[in-house]
Structures are given as C-alpha cells and as structure tokens.
C-alpha cells in the first residue's frame, strides 16, 4: 500500500508594522498554503526568529528599526534562511539590500502571483 506523505506547509515569518499590509499579506500567504507567524516590528522579529522558518518576508521601513538592521542581526545567527525585503522604495536600492544579506525583494503592496514566484524560487 502506498501512503501519501503529508505536504509540509511552508513556515513564514512576516515582519510588517502596517496593520493593513499585514492583513493583506497574511491572507495572500495563507491562500498559498503557508503557515504565517507575524512580527509587528524589528524587535519582535528578532525575538521570534529561529531556524524553523522556511522564509522571512521583511519590511524595510519598520517603526522601531531599519529592516536592514534586522537582516544583519538574523544573518549573524544563520545564513541559510531566505530573507525577502518588502519595500515601497525603488529598485535602485537593490545593491544596498543585497549587501546586508537580503536575498530578494518585492515591491509592496504585492500580489499573490509575486508571492508565489518568490515561494517557488526560494523554498525547496
């Protein structure tokens, strides 16, 4: 008898301080079969972070710290978890994001298709 192995839901850490954007991204990620843990600022992201997350979506302009500072602190703990910047800034800042350890970025507000593309690319 062949038994199907349950498909593991990707575990996502969403770091976003805007309640409206939080709600949209959580809904979109859940539609993509993700389990989402929400951090409302940089300090809570650092407190919640562990290697169990498959991917991190990180707002660059947080209320308490810069998202790039959060990324640097996480990178001191691990280099393997993909970190995707969420930003409303232009793509001219891409090199700066990548220099801090960010793997990719998405303009916000984003779409389900953009999130799916990132999930398919970064989560094996």
Automatic annotation (TrEMBL):
<dbReference type="InterPro" id="IPR001789">
    <property type="entry name" value="Sig_transdc_resp-reg_receiver"/>
</dbReference>
<dbReference type="GO" id="GO:0016740">
    <property type="term" value="F:transferase activity"/>
</dbReference>
<keyword id="KW-0597">Phosphoprotein</keyword>
<feature type="modified residue" description="4-aspartylphosphate">
    <location>
        <position position="59"/>
    </location>
</feature>
<dbReference type="Pfam" id="PF00072">
    <property type="entry name" value="Response_reg"/>
</dbReference>
<keyword id="KW-0808">Transferase</keyword>
<dbReference type="GO" id="GO:0000156">
    <property type="term" value="F:phosphorelay response regulator activity"/>
</dbReference>
<protein>
    <submittedName>
        <fullName>Sensor protein</fullName>
        <ecNumber>2.7.3.-</ecNumber>
    </submittedName>
</protein>
<feature type="domain" description="Response regulatory">
    <location>
        <begin position="11"/>
        <end position="123"/>
    </location>
</feature>
<dbReference type="GO" id="GO:0000160">
    <property type="term" value="P:phosphorelay signal transduction system"/>
</dbReference>
<dbReference type="InterPro" id="IPR011006">
    <property type="entry name" value="CheY-like_superfamily"/>
</dbReference>
<keyword id="KW-0902">Two-component regulatory system</keyword>
């Amino acid at each position: 008898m062949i038994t199907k192995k349950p498909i593991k839901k990707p575990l996502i850490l969403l770091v976003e301080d805007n309640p409206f954007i939080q709600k949209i991204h959580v809904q979109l990620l859940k539609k993509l079969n993700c389990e989402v843990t929400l951090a409302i600022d940089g300090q809570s992201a650092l407190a919640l972070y562990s290697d169990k997350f498959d991917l991190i979506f990180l707002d660059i302009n947080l209320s308490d710290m810069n998202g790039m500072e959060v990324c640097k602190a996480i990178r001191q703990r691990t280099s393997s978890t993909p970190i995707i910047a969420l930003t409303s800034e232009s793509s001219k800042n891409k090199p700066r994001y990548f220099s801090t350890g960010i793997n990719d970025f998405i303009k916000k507000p984003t779409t389900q298709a953009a999130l799916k593309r990132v999930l398919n690319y970064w989560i094996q």
